[in-house]
Amino acid sequence: MTVRQRIHDKLVEAFSPERLEVIDESHMHNVPEGAESHFKVIVVAEAFEGVGRLDRQRRINALLADELAGPVHALSMRAWTPAQWRERGGEVPESPPCMGGG
Amino acid sequence: MDVMDRIREQVENHAIVIYMKGTPQLPSCGFSARAAQAMMETGVEFAYVNVIADPEIMQNLPNFADWPTFPQIYMNGELFGGGDIIMELYEDNELKDVMQEAFDKGPKKAS
After folding, report:
1. Inter-chain residue contact A97 with B30, CB threshold 8 Å
2. Do B31 and A74 count as a contact with CB atoms less than 8 A apart?
3. A interface mutation test: which of B79, B84, B86 has the most A CBs within 10 A?
4. Which domain holds residue B21?
């Protein structure tokens, strides 16, 4: 199973998201071809209702602790409730280009 | 001094600190660059620590507040968040107010 698939499955199981995107951005970085090292996840779930910004991210970090300790060395995330997602017009911010620091 | 004590001193002696790869003027990671840029745009003063120049801090900071990635932003001794949280506030036009409030509450002009 790819790292991307594993991240996807874990997030589905933990949050039952209304919307989920797991984007492999490794190609934007200075890593070997095929490395699954940089990811962005967008999770829109009712489960985040009443949970603060920091705690939402902590939950995702904890869920993906094994991946973060292993192949994944950058994980960018946005965690919203469905209401927040609609308020934002469903837009996903672009990740910045790599600057060589890994 | 123990590295955890060093970190504690840094985050307690400054209202706002960003631990980043590189410096705000010469960042070496896109996420650090973006967070530092957003923070500079607020005009509120903040301190930075270049973790690439301090491998001991780079290695141990993830355990300090149990946060695995860089950049990390602390306000008055507490982890405020990583780059994503800074960018979320920036996009929502709340970053300046949050930083100003932290600065006003913080230690004045740390030596």
Report:
1. yes
2. yes
3. B84
4. 3-102
Mean pLDDT along residues B50-65: 95
Tens of pLDDT, residue by residue over A10-64, are 999 999 999 999 999 888 877 777 788 899 999 999 999 999 999 999 999 999 9
DSSP code at position B22: B
The continuous run of DSSP H or E covering B4 comes out as helix B3-13
**C-alpha B86: how far from its chain's center?**
10
The CATH code of the domain that includes A14 is 3.30.300.90
- Listed in order, strand segments (DSSP E) in chain A are 19-24, 38-44, 74-80
Complex-level ipTM: 0.79
CB contact under 8 A, A98 and B82: no
Number of domains in chain A: 1
**Residues of chain B neighbouring A77 (CB-CB closer than 8 A):** 84
Q: Considering only CA atoms, which of B62, B69, B63, B81 is closest in space to residue B16? A: B81
Q: What is the number of domains present in chain B?
A: 1
